[in-house]
Amino acid sequence: MGSWAAQQRQEARQLAARLSAEGVRNVALTWVDNAGITRVKTIPAERLAAAAERGIGMSPVFDVFTSDDAITASEHLGGPDGDLRLFPDLERVTSLAAQPGWAWAPADRYDQLGLPHPACQRQFARRMTERAAAAGLELRMGFETEWVVTRAPAGHPAPGRADEPLDYPCTGPAYGMTRVVELSDYLRDVTEALSVQGIDVLQIHPEYAPGQFEVTTAPGDPVRAADDVVLVRETVRAVSVRHGLRASFAPSVVAGEVGNGCHLHTGLYRDGTSLHRSPDAAWGLAPEATAFLGGVLDALPALLAIGCPSPASYLRLQPSHWAGVYQCWGVENREAALRLITGAPDDPDGGHAEIKTFDAAANPYLAVGAVIAAGLHGIESAAQLPPPQTGDPGALGVRERARRGIVRLPATLTEAADRLEKSAPLHEAMGEVLHGAVLAVRRAEEAHFAESEDDAIAAATRWRW
Ligand code: GLU
Ligand code: MG
């Protein structure tokens, strides 16, 4: 233990020296709160070794912050008392290409005695990854990032006021090459910044809504995937600011329009072999992969309180908007909440599944942890998958949907929070303190927007994520 600590100290010192040689002055230590906001403490680069050893102080009250920076309380958390220590993950320290002189590291939260903080979302994600590993299973996950870009009025780079009209810097059609031509310098700079930061970009392209783009990155370990999506978002934001633009990752930028999703891709492996590539099995799904996905599908109503955590999320969740609002799965079906992706037959990694319903207001650490918990519960309870759905369930009549056993996922945050409250597997996996804090934040968000019209909810949350 002593030698491990000494080695850590040594590594941190070497890292701090390397950063300072690269001209890094500050390191941003981020964690994501239960409302999905990335919060930060920053330190001078030379404090990194001390931070790695003793952590940086922060209040536990952030676990009950809402997306509008109000503070609620849960049974265990809230109020001005107490302190936690924020520990940077030295393996993820990254110099930021679009913020010269800055580096970033995701952080884990411990109490002052060095015990894990029970509401630390990143450690929850790690615990669930380890729980899967103890069963011989490995998850490879990745998030898609969608965002809407607008022009920032001169002298007001960020954040946008709710009442400002949206000024799109590109006018080209959905998925149109015109948009790439109009914003080619910007998109190149986003790609380059991500690449030099070690993010493996798979695609970057225009999306459907006005000003909307998407970047997808390579899958990896679940905690890494959650770290990556934080880094991707803050990098897109930083490049946008440098181009006089603003990026919104909010679920609903304009009420009624197609929104921003943050789909979670998830593949299951045993001993390095994909369980989505089982010879002779239907769709290549090994029994464990079927049970895992069956568990996720069963838990989706409760998982929405994690993956779609804002009242604004439910403005996005409209049928026939590719947001996956029905509790069903389908093979390559973009209207199914759970889309099975079979990939090219000769690609050993080709098969996996995509949860389409989630958005970027979700804390990505909670999202990966809760999905793993639901999937492992599916394996324990030998969950099955119903027949796959082809076509758009939203285009079917109510009776035909009922005949096929397809139900709508929660259409309000209240409904989703009620399901999370009652979910025994998620309660057990998250633990009392984290589960309680998440629910308290959901209830406070509901109450805050209870009287608001759709347009007002979209405007109030547009620049929060
Ligand atoms: N923007 C859509 C959403 O709200 C998704 C479009 C797509 O399938 O990539 O999730
Ligand atoms: Mg997309």
Summarize the structure.
The protein has helices at residues 2-21, 48-54, 121-134, 177-182, 184-196, 222-242, 287-307, 313-316, 364-380, 398-404, 413-422, 424-430, 432-449, 454-461; strands at 26-32, 38-44, 56-58, 84-88, 94-95, 102-110, 137-151, 201-206, 212-217, 245-248, 264-270, 273-274, 326-331, 336-341, 352-355. The protein has 465 residues and is of the alpha+beta class.
**Whole-number tally of structural domains:** 2
CATH topology of the largest domain: Creatine Kinase, Chain A, domain 2
Look at the structure and name the CATH superfamily of the largest domain. Answer: Glutamine synthetase/guanido kinase, catalytic domain
Low-confidence stretches: none
Oligomer classification: single chain
- Gross geometry: globular
Give the integer mean of the pLDDT values: 93
The gyration radius over C-alpha positions equals: 21 Å
Q: What is the number of strand segments?
A: 15
Pattern of helices and strands: HEEHEEEEHEHHEEHEEEHHEEEHHHHHH
Helical fraction: 25-40%
Q: Which CATH class of the largest domain?
A: Alpha Beta
Cα(first) to Cα(last) distance is: 40 Å
Which architecture of the largest domain does the CATH hierarchy give at level 2? Answer: 2-Layer Sandwich
In terms of structural class, how would the helical and strand content be classed?
A: alpha+beta
Question: β content, as a range?
Answer: 15-25%
